[in-house]
Amino acid sequence: MNRAWLFVGGAALALSSVWAAAQDSPESLLPPGFEKPKPAPKVDTPAPNPTASPVIQPLPGDTRTPSAVPRAPSLPSGLRIPTLGELEAMSPDDLDELLGLKPKFDMPAAARRSMAQVGVLAASEGGLAAGSVSQQPQDLVKAALDGNKGRMVSRWGHILLRRALASRLDAPIGMNPADFAASRAALLVRMGEGDAARAVVQDVDAGNYTPSLTQAAMDAFAATADVTGICPVIAVHGGIRKDVDWRVLRSVCASFQGDGSAGMAQLNQMQRSGVWPQIDMLLAKKFAGAAGKSRQAVKIEWDKVDTMKPWRYALAIAVGLEPPARLLKDDGPRYSYLAATAPMVSLTSRAAGADRAAGAGILSSAAMVDLYSQIYAQDDITGEWSDRADMLRNAYVGTEPADRMSAIKGLWDGGSDAQARYSRQVLTAYAAARMPVDGAFDGEAPDLIASMLAAGLDQNALRWLGRSDPGGLAWAQLALAAPTLQGGVAAGTLNDFYDNDASEGHRKSRFLLAGLAALGRVETAVSRDFASKLGIDPGRQTRWTALIDQAAEVENQALVVFLAGVGMQGDGWDKMTSVNLFHIVNALNRVGLSAEARMIAAEAVARG
User: Fold this and answer.
1) I need a labelling partner for 296 at 20 to 30 A (CA). Which of 27, 180, 435, 484 fits?
2) Helix, strand, coil proportions of the chain in percent (round to 5)?
3) How wide is the angle at C-alpha 186 spanned by C-alphas 183 and 191, nearest 5°?
4) How many Å apart are CA 348 and CA 393, to the nearest integer?
5) Percent of the chain with pLDDT over 70
């Protein structure tokens, strides 16, 4: 018999007893004495004769010749026999892979989901048409998704792109549906939309995952601090990757699947080898230790930590810790977006994150109000956040309009920068809609209108049209946001707006012209003359404008939105050009997304 095969079998039997003890298995039902059979009696055997052929004794009654007696199978070529220590550190999934026992699918065929129309938002629920990009070149679709860095200048552009990415869509011809889902989920993660990204990757059965979808799923679960969300994928594709992130997560998953001892042993081994930073290994062990009886005292110290990483942040908040603010400030708004939607962090941390997330389009006005309502209800929250919650309540239920207006302005002015101020306008959208149209508030009308339009309350905002002077900022927003506009905008009105425009390089005037021209609300001659005055050509063609115009020509909503997302990249409206704005608004309007086109154009003037 092959001695190597016997070794593997013996080691596996020894390992099975370790698992049984670790999992508190039920006591054996065999009668006493059967658990440990008595050893076979010793038999005297003659000394080996090096010159004689080996003697193989056939079984009683076996008439075959000795050469016909089957031998133990040999190990596959190239298979290295694990050491006993390695076997003891293996989880049941590891051993299944070693012995080739892990199936690709662990569910019956009838229960598997189709790979057609992957996504979570059907057309009947507001999603885009399922076949929107199915006939489009896969290289173009992939480039539009993978080339987008995820930062949108426009709140409404962000909302529209999220809706398209989450829609139930067929993949372009020639593109693996799993890879299409991966590109969409990865972009959602870059946008700060971890929850939507997680929903998209979870719409694909684990057995259908590709390497790109596996990576997108890992990023999505990190973005939502859902550490064990990747475990079903690891259960099916445990050996697909060997990188340290994957190995650590496999050990964590082993702990949560009932094999806490083996999982912790693997983490300890990786900690000793230093494959992951010490702080990350301690966080992983603290999280894994919550799964069973293998808890260890783990102390987390941030003094020597100088950077933040996605899994580091996810593990920290998953175990109830909040990293120091100094580690989060140098990575843009990424962790603010995560905190704003993370239910496990404190309400005040979520509110601080909301000051960035709402303006970006991640949080709605209703979600913001709900967040501050929870803060208001907590007696143990005091200081600035409690004061803001009181102020928001006064903005809605103040006895006098002047009191409500004072509270609304107090919230706006409390924003630390332009992005935070706009997030506060999202917060006050419905309070602004309750303000009476009164000459006493004409000075606040532009901000009240911007606040209402931030939540899409265009009908409420249009109540102010009668009190808006043509050529003013309030009028400009309403001229773009109105579903229809009687007559074209006159040249004199555009010149009045230009004279009152204090924005850098008359950016608001450029955006106003681009929006009006894209929506067909200004005559060609008037548009040409005003463009000449501004020194711009909104209709100028580039390779990108040609693509989005062609997509609009064939009325392909999804492709228009994907390409619009490419043209709206940036961390501020100073990164937007009048050319891009014109073609985005025009294309969206032509494919039936006129409401979004109007909101983007009005937002550009308000924030430009």
Assistant:
1) 27
2) 60, 0, 40
3) 125
4) 17
5) 81
Contact between residue 191 and residue 566 where contact means Cβ atoms under 8 Å apart: no
State how far the Cα of 500 lies from the Cα of 474, in Å rounded to an integer. 12
Give CA–CA dist 379/124, Å, rounded. 43
How far CA 424 is from CA of 153, 385, 540, in Å, comes to: 17, 13, 36
Q: DSSP characters for 430-455?
A: HHHHTS---GGGGGGHHHHHHHHHHT
Among candidates 547, 549, 556, which has minimal Cα distance to 172?
556
Alpha carbon distance 385, 375 (integer Å): 7
Query: The tokens of 387 are what?
Result: 């004061």
User: In angstroms, rounded to a whole number, what is the distance separating the alpha carbons of residues 354 and 358?
Assistant: 5
Report the distance separating Cα 192 and Cα 405, nearest Å. 32
pTM of the model: 0.83
- Distance from CA of residue 521 to its chain's centroid? 38
Residue 42 region, left (φ>0) first, then alpha (ψ -120 to 50), else beta? beta
d(CA 34, CA 37): 6
Q: Kindly give the interhelix angle for 594-607 and 473-481, rounded to the nearest 10 degrees.
A: 170
Question: With 80 as the cut, is the pLDDT of residue 146 above it?
Answer: yes
Output 390-398 pairs: Cβ under 8 A, ≥24 positions apart.
392/427, 392/428, 392/431, 395/428, 395/431, 396/430, 396/431, 396/434
The answer to whether residue 158 scores a pLDDT higher than 50 is: yes
Q: Among candidates 364, 368, 519, 521, which has minimal Cα distance to 456? A: 364
Helix (H, G, I), strand (E, B) or coil at 152: strand
Query: Rounded to whole angstroms, how far apart are CA atoms 272 and 396?
Result: 57
Closest by alpha carbon to 278, among 254, 293, 299, 256?
Answer: 299
- The amino acid sitting at 425 is Q
pLDDT tier, 262 (very low <50, low <70, confident <90, very high otherwise) = confident
**Does residue 89 contact residue 15 with C-beta atoms inside 8 Å?**
no
Query: Structure tokens of 232?
Result: 């079903």
Alpha helical stretches, state H, 462-556? 473-481, 491-500, 507-518, 524-534, 543-553
CA dist., res. 250 & res. 21, Å (int): 21
Cα–Cα distance, 213 to 186 (Å, whole number): 9
Q: What confidence score (pLDDT) does residue 332 get?
A: 84
According to the model, what pLDDT value does residue 88 have? 60
Q: What is the pLDDT of residues 346-399, one digit of tens each?
A: 999 999 999 999 999 999 999 999 999 999 999 999 999 999 999 999 999 999
pLDDT digits (tens, 9 = 90+) for 406-430: 999 999 999 989 999 999 999 999 9
DSSP letter (8 states) at residue 546: H
| Exposure string over 416-431, b if 16+ CB within 10 A, otherwise e | eeebbbbbbbbbbbbb
Distance CA 250, CA 247 (A): 5
What is the average pLDDT across 429-438?
97
Concatenating the DSSP letter of every residue in 344-385 gives TS-HHHHHHHHHHHHHHTSS-HHHHHHHHHHHHH-TT--THH
